[in-house]
Structures are given as structure tokens and as C-alpha cells.
Amino acid sequence: MLRPEVSASYQELSEDVERASENPADEREGEMEVHEDTSSVILPAVFLVYQTISDFREKLKHPVMSVSYKEVSLYDAPGIAFYPGKAQLLSCKHHYYDHIPPLINPGQPGDIECTTQRINYTDPFTNQTMKYALVVQGPRDVKKKELVFLQFHLNGTDQDFSAIDYLLFSSFQEFINSPEKAEFMKDCESSYSSWKFSGGFRTWVKMSLVKTKEEDGSETVEFKQETSVVNYIDQRTKLRSDQLFFVVFEWKDPFIQTVQDIITANPWNTIALLCGIFLALFKAADFAKLSVKWMIKIRKRHLKRKSQAMNHIN
């Protein structure tokens, strides 16, 4: 004789089989409910996976810019390349603590106490025109507010406006040590921007240095400038048609700015997150299937008992 619990298990199994054979529509309906409930669990998790991957790709495309500052007491003296044309350098001196003494005999040749180098080279953009440049060593000591003060003289010009072009490059010493100075200047002109300062004014240029680290590990250097211009009051007695140019170069502050792109997308964090999502997805899907099957089983029993009650009444 079978034990009561075993007999009850056989009876439940027989009832389920009988109910499934008598009402195949209910079985199909139950299966559809399983699929619907499983889809309701899977779809949100699939969207979360898609969103996670999309965020990771977006962070790869748009890295965050990191800016840091390094304080120095001495800069590597920059090179200042002037293109004076017909203008003549009258004087060049280094001063400190933002103090420039009054001019003595302006318009007349004075002391040139700067390290200079004259160079001729072909225009890097045309490879035909010859260019003449006067390269001057820039200031170094930012703590003592070292500056370089230069005076140029242009005897006469047939142009409506007069100006002198110049460009800055990172190291005057690299220029001096270069065996191919003409090629060095062609590369500088191709890489750096040029500026102008006008006659009849004193132009004060305050420089700052920005270094940018590229993805391949290389480093580029860029100069930023703040300029102030004041009018020169010509107190010479004779009426003259010549032009005087005055320009000052000084470091703005002792901080070198370094810019670097940082990718915030961490592939290991993303992989770990996706693994967690997939694990939760599989567990949720299995739980949903078991829960729905259990509910279908309870529903079948209820319908069976209801049918039996109706048959008994009939």
C-alpha cells in the first residue's frame, strides 16, 4: 500500500496531465504568460546593457581634459624671432622687477646687451622667398621679474601702417645648438603663430607657457600672451618722418600649464558591471520561469477542482 504523501503526488501529477490533455488552450495560455513575464524581466536588463556600452563608447570619444600647474623659478629662455624688414635694432637690455629706466637719446643707437643671432632662410610656405630674422634670447628669471626691453628704428616707409612681426619658440638654447639653424627656423615658423607690434607705441608682452601631452606620448608647446600698449610721446625737437618701436617681453607668472586628455572610461569596471547585469538577468529569468510555472500549476488545480464541482452538481 502506498504512503499518503506518495499517493498524493501521483494524484497531483495525474491531475496535471489530465488537465493539460483536456484543456490544451489553457496550456498554451500558460506558456504565453511565461514568455510575457520572462520578456518583462529581460527587456529592462537588455536596455541597461545597451546604455552601459553606449556610455563607455561616449567616454572613449570625449575624454576629460586634465589641467595641472607646475611652479618654476627659472624658465628655459625662449627664443624671440623678429622680422624687422628695414627697421634697425637700436638697443636691447635685460631689466628686473618691472623697472625700465627712462630713455636716453631715443632714436639713437644704444647698448645691445642681449644675446642675438641673425639668420636667413627660405620661406617654409613658398620655398622661394628669402626671409631675414633676428633671434633674441628671452627672459628666464621669473622670480625677479626679468624682462627684455628692445628699441627699433625705421628711417622711413612708404606704407600707411608700420609694424614688426615676431614669433616665440620654446628654447633659445636649442636654436643655438642646432646644426641646421635655417631648418630649425622653418620648423618654428610652420609650428608657431606670429604676432605684430606697431611703431609709435610701447608694447608690453606677458608670456605664459602651455604644454599639451598628446596620445602618442609626445609633447607640444604653445605660448599665450597678454599685451598692453601705451603711446610713446616723442619729445625729440626736430620734426621727423621716422618711426620708433618699443617692445617688452616678460613672463606672466611662474606656472607652466600642462594639459592632458584623460579617458574616464574604465574597461574593467564596465566588464564587471556587465557581468553583474548578465548574472542578475539569468537569475531573474530563472526565478520568473519557476514562479510562473508554479502559478500555472496552482491555477490548473483550481480549475480542476472547479470542473469537478460542476460535474458533481450536474
Task: Please characterize this protein's 3D structure.
The structure is a single chain. The protein is of the alpha+beta class and 314 residues long. The protein has a domain at 74-261: Acid-sensing ion channels like fold, CATH 2.60.470. Helices cover 39% and strands 32% of the residues. It has 5 helices and 12 strands. It has helices at 4-22, 24-61, 172-177, 181-191, 267-313; strands at residues 64-71, 79-83, 88-95, 116-122, 130-137, 147-154, 163-169, 194-198, 201-213, 219-231, 243-251, 255-262. Strands 1, 3, 6, 9, 10, 11 and 12 form a 7-stranded mixed β-sheet that branches. Helix 1 packs across helix 5 (267-313) and helix 2 runs antiparallel to helix 5. The longest helix is centred in the C-terminal third of the chain and has 47 residues, at 267-313.
In short:
Belongs to the proton-activated chloride channel family. The protein is of the alpha+beta class. It has five helices and twelve strands.
Secondary structure layout plus pairing:
Layout: H1 4-22, H2 24-61, E1 64-71, E2 79-83, E3 88-95, E4 116-122, E5 130-137, E6 147-154, E7 163-169, H3 172-177, H4 181-191, E8 194-198, E9 201-213, E10 219-231, E11 243-251, E12 255-262, H5 267-313
Parallel strand pairs: 9-11, 9-12
Antiparallel strand pairs: 1-12, 2-5, 2-7, 3-6, 4-5, 6-11, 7-8, 9-10
Helix pairs in contact: 1-5, 2-5
What's the CATH architecture of the domain at 74-261?
Answer: Sandwich
How would the global form be characterised? rod-shaped
Proportion of residues in extended strands: 25-35%
Mean pLDDT value: 78
| CATH class label of the domain at 74-261 | Mainly Beta
**What share of the residues lie within helices?**
25-40%
Structural class: alpha+beta
